[in-house]
Specification:
alpha/beta; Rossmann fold; about 40% helix
Amino acid sequence: MPVRLQKPADVDVLMSRAMDHCWPKCRPAIEAGCTAIAAFNDDLALVIMALAARHGIAVPDRLSVVGFDNTRHGAMAGLTSYDLNGPAVMNAMVGWVLNPRGSPAGRRTGVVVITGNLIVRESSGPAPLRVQIPAATHGADGVRKRNRSRTESRKRYSFPPG
């Protein structure tokens, strides 16, 4: 049985909580000049688009946003998204269950390759030629302000985490 929200205010509360959680994680990358964000799913991508609008960041002129799963509400909002090709996934799953041996030779391969599609809409575009860094991170002379040492900066943004 599907879960239904009791009243429209619930949606506002959920969106507000998602925005409060997401912005501190996105802001450093955006301020550092990031020009695109690929979100975990369309719902998170829509939150990022709303955050961008709230903070005056133009999508897609300044920041491209891409989701993952090509939902109807993402399509209505003009979100570029990766479509997983659900019918092909379902066919592969049913075929796996109905034919447990997987192949005429009686062996499962363990890997099924299913091709999806990137559905390009209004939320993505070419990277800007020059990114405008917010004034809060730069002084009047255009030189980046140093809020922490280089060592702290490397630790914070190192990849893979460790």
